[in-house]
Design goal:
The chain is of the alpha+beta class. Helix content is 28%, strand content 18%. It contains 13 helices and 25 strands. A hairpin with a 4-residue loop joins β15 (208-209) and β16. It is globular, with a radius of gyration of 26 Å.
């Protein structure tokens, strides 16, 4: 079904709703057979530490309190599982990972009395699941029994063999449960989510699986039995079942959803597919749905992708595309891809305007790349490359799913939002990032040098870690991996401290001093001495200043005085 052109004059959804990005890679689409999923957790005013919950056995009748976001969360008790798995961040000891992105959907379907918000749901399920499919079944069971309080949500649910995408929304006030669809990403494909509902039509089963309580198309799709009938009941859909679109019913699009959300997916796909083909979707990205009204749900990349590729994808600012954030006047004198809030604003004549919203952004509380590998022991096969703050401004640190404690710089007690600390990964990363943001083109090279140095070392060192891991007892392996994760984190903190000190000295007073290998080239005036130089303005900025100011800053030609 084609749509009319959406104009910029439409009411925009607020920036706070557009919070996170997930990239997903099937095992045959990755360069080494890994399943990969990612998470930029974006939102101003918070730091998101690396968490750990230990595995454990539990007595019959034991209850657990839900510590979620709801008004009565502290008084909500559910039966504990007989055994809970260890969880590091958003990956458990079985290499099951769950990441999310919010799309909101229809306001009337939010049930504030539901016991499970999306993040509490993810945490409980990770303690109970051995596979991605089991995790999806567990999410269904908990939501049906206790209710769901969040708005529309997408989850990437992955294990060492499969990647699934799941979209879930509640049923509204005083109604338990939720409606949802989960589809398996083909092994040879990549997929992405960025705060918009993306599942449209899906394979349908002939009947409900009575044991599971939902519908299953084996190996392809799972969905709640009433996902279509509930849409009919609410007046969202009245066509044949075969034409039903989850997105159209529960998360319809507007210009903001397309430009702020789908554009991130488009740019990710463009990195790994024919750019001319992907650029044919630009009318849609610009809000014209008359010919194209959706992106592919997933694509087969032109060549297999690596973990390092995906890390760099998480740092994307539309560079090299029609939406490049470094290439116009709004990038300022130093070609910065960063913009101040808000996303939506008005010009002096009242014109509605907006800024781009890329994958990499300054408001991230944390970022992670989860790698699951079926040919290694679970404890070392599952790695969460983690750090706090903007993916573009950090180095990803490997944290194995087999560790038994979190490195100090990533712990909650060392990452207060109200007090700077050199012991905090969040604040050390922000210290550096907030020096780089205003003078981006001048400073980013030094940051990238430190970033690459660390990530190169981590990648190389893991080869030795993996060799040693297969020879160790489980107890020895736990301590070894925990020690490695702690040493990697300490290395990052020391390198970022060195980087921060370099930047303040090298770029003091709006000049640039020479440096080499992360050190200032010192010396006194004389042979070989290099004086500080001024950073160059962006040519786009210079031309825009000239166009706006006319001859004000045009230097007059020198007048030659004739000799007499």
């Amino acid at each position: 079904m084609k749509k009319a052109i959406l104009t910029v004059a439409m009411v925009f959804v607020t920036a706070a709703a557009f919070a996170c990005t997930n990239l997903i890679v099937g095992k045959k689409a990755s360069i080494d057979g890994s399943v990969i999923c990612t998470y930029n957790c974006d939102g101003f005013g918070f730091a998101s530490p690396l968490t750990y919950s230990a595995p454990g056995r539990h007595a019959e009748g034991e209850m657990i309190a839900l510590r979620g976001w709801g008004p009565s969360a502290g008084n909500r008790l559910i039966p504990q599982a007989s055994y809970t798995y260890g969880v590091v961040g958003l990956m458990n000891e079985n290499q099951v990972s769950i990441v999310e992105t919010t799309w909101g959907g229809r306001d009337e379907l939010t049930n504030r009395e539901g016991w499970f918000d999306y993040f509490t749901l993810m945490g409980i399920v990770l303690q109970r699941a051995t596979t991605a499919r089991e995790a999806i079944a567990c999410m269904h069971q908990l939501v049906q029994e206790y209710g769901y309080s969040s708005s529309g949500e997408s989850f990437a649910v992955c294990d060492k063999d499969e990647a699934w995408i799941m979209e879930l929304i509640g049923k509204g006030k005083d109604r338990k449960g939720g409606v949802w669809v989960a589809m398996r990403v083909p092994d040879d494909c990549i997929c992405a989510y960025a705060n918009s509902s993306r599942i449209q039509k899906f394979p349908q089963a002939k009947k409900v699986d009575k044991k599971l309580g939902f519908c299953v198309v084996e190996g392809e799709c799972m969905y709640s039995a009433d996902v279509i009938s509930f849409a009919r009941e609410m007046g969202y859909y009245d066509g044949p079942d075969s034409e039903f679109s989850f997105r159209e019913a529960y998360g319809p699009m507007d210009f903001g959803t397309i430009r702020y959300c789908e554009a991130r997916v488009w740019s990710f796909f463009r990195h790994h597919y024919d750019t001319d083909v992907m650029d044919s979707y630009l009318p849609y990205i610009n809000g014209d749905m008359s010919q194209i009204d959706h992106l592919p749900l997933w694509i087969k990349p032109v060549k297999p992708v690596s973990v390092r590729d995906i890390m760099n994808d998480m740092r994307d600012h539309y560079e090299g595309t029609a939406l490049d954030m470094t290439a116009d006047l709004s990038a300022g004198p130093w070609a910065s891809p960063y913009r101040n809030q808000p996303v939506n604003y008005k010009s002096s004549d009242g014109t509605d305007m907006f800024r781009e919203r890329p994958i990499g952004c300054q408001q991230s509380g944390m970022t992670m790349v989860c790698q699951m590998r079926d040919w290694l022991p679970d404890a070392v096969g599952g790695v969460t490359y983690f750090n706090m703050d903007d993916a573009s401004m950090i180095a990803y640190v490997p944290a194995y799913c087999g560790i038994n404690r979190v490195p100090d710089p990533f712990r909650a007690e060392n990452n207060s939002m109200n007090e700077f600390s050199v012991k905090s990964a969040f604040w050390m990363n922000n210290f550096v990032a907030n020096m780089v943001y205003p003078r981006y083109s001048a400073m980013i090279g030094d940051l990238k040098e430190a970033q690459t140095e660390l990530e190169d070392f981590y990648a190389k060192d893991q080869e030795e870690v993996e060799k040693r891991a297969v020879e160790m007892t489980p107890t020895d392996l736990t301590e070894y991996l925990t020690g490695k994760t702690i040493s990697y984190t300490d290395m990052m903190m020391k390198r970022w401290d060195k980087l921060a000190k370099l930047l303040i000295v090298k770029f003091n007073d709006q000049s640039i001093r020479a440096s080499q290998n992360g050190e200032i080239v010192s010396g006194r005036p004389g042979p070989g001495f290099q004086r500080p130089v001024a950073p160059a303005y962006s040519p786009v900025f210079i031309d825009a200043v000239k166009a706006q100011t006319g001859n004000r800053y045009v230097k007059p030609q020198e007048i030659k005085i004739k000799e007499r």
